[in-house]
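Subject: Interface between my chains keeps coming out wrong

I've been trying for a while to get a sensible model of this assembly. When I model each chain on its own everything looks fine, but I need the whole thing in one frame so I can look at the contacts. Pasting all components below, labels as-is. Any help appreciated, I'm running out of ideas.
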Amino acid sequence: MLKDVSFGQYYPVSSFVHRLDPRFKIVFLIAFIVAIFLAKEFLALGIAAALLLLAILFARIPAGKVLRSVRGVLFLVLFTAAINIFFHGGETVYWSYGILQVTKEGILFSAFLVIRLFLLVVCSSLLTYTTTPVSLTDGIESLLTPLKWVHFPVHELALIMSIALRFIPILMDETDRIIGAQKARGANLDSGSPAKRIRAIVPVLIPLLLSAFRRADELGDAMDARCYSGGKKRTKYKKLRFTWRDLIAFLLIAGLVAGIVVLRYFPVFPV
Amino acid sequence: MRIVAEHLTHIYNAKTPFAAKALDDVSLTIGEGEFFGIIGQTGSGKSTFVQHLNGLIRVPASLRRKKKKDDPTVLRAGEFDLTSKKTDFRALRRQVGMVFQYPENQLFAETVFEDVAFGYKNFAEGKPSPEETERAVREAIEAVGLPYGEIKDVSPFDLSGGQKRRVAIAGVIVTKPETLVLDEPAAGLDPIGKREVMELLHRLHESWCKTVVIVSHDMDEIAENCTRVAVFHEGKVKYVLPPRELFRRTEELLELGLDVPLTAKLCLALGRRGIDIDCDFTTEDFLRKVLARKKGGAC
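Reply #2:
Try treating it as a single job with all components included. I did that and got this:
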């Protein structure tokens, strides 16, 4: 049932990529995304793809997992590709019907877009596969620290994020249990007209909401009981540290960005 | 109905790094008319096992798709073969009522009546008439010992903990299931609430559901109530014995990290001083035997 949902979930193995500092992983991801948007030609995307492949190999994530992350956006990607093939226009026309035109430029351009979107999705899910939600929020909190100067509640935001992430599996379990209980009472959740299905959700939704509120109350009480009072003077259990791994990753990413910028101005195979 | 499981294995998240074997080659038969107990530590597989009984957890699809001749797995509840592809789960769930842990968490309707009627309407053939529904709901609410007239229009969320639990149980027994499975039916209640729930289950066992299966942590509860007990340990069945014989193995049970009834502990302590009490570990029988010994002047 719901326990089998795996998109964007942490994949627990120990690897080079897993042990990178989460702050840098987030920065690397942003740099990588910027790089693939700067790329103007296939060679640049090819280099980015090669680097990403290397990262996946080093992260020891099975290929099936990576492909599954792509499956979620497959429709969007194909849709974008189709639109571009027919509407891009260009010099070398292969086929045309009214305003629809299939051109060499159009095909190349949509292939380019497809690769770019795939790279985007794969590199983002690589981050969530290799970083626990807790260290991810730690990283975000640390990166947002400068905003404290303008009295932005960075710590509170990070806390909200980590609580929300922490509660996803709990609430999923709870949903499973409630679905089980209502199924045992003959609830039919999988078939019938859309109107019927929406009505069938009520017996699951109400207990779930109640339990979420109850848990929130309990968590609030527990935090009060331990004198939790926000960000000031709190120390970290896990200190984030820059290590040799981060240095290697930094050099690779910096090389990639530099390479792509150079290729942008001195293209080898322009599209 | 008779429940038969042979070589039943269940792995959660099979083929992922999260894989966890919850049941490991479990073979167990529960006879018709029993008041059967299942005990074991947290994570021993007892909840997984009982959820198989009404098809909420199913045997792996690979096993159902083509029934391999050499696969020894058997799972039957009465005439239902749960390893088959074509099990009628609606009919099965009508026959095997399942009360989850903290069943009050499943309440959702605006009134007690509506909540109890939910299961009845779901399982009814066609649309039941209001009179039929009302009769079934009235019977179920009265069977769990609540005053129908006073309570039927109250919101279930305004009731006390014990009352909520009774309403939830009524919501399951309203279809008159032949077998009733309860996961920790008395958990989280105060001692009086616990006793009331167990008394309720006995009444139901006599007049309402032929077979009752309970999962419990509370050994006193098991000793007082069950005809036979299965002990689960790390996904395997260690013993299936009547409480009278099971709790004689006090030391073995303690070794498995399980508790024993207070009476069993007292028997053990007395035994160490050379006083053997042969009782069935219910408080009543224990006291009677001890008093008999005292009168006999043995100590």
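Reply #3:
Confirming on my end. DSSP finds nine helices and two strands in chain A.
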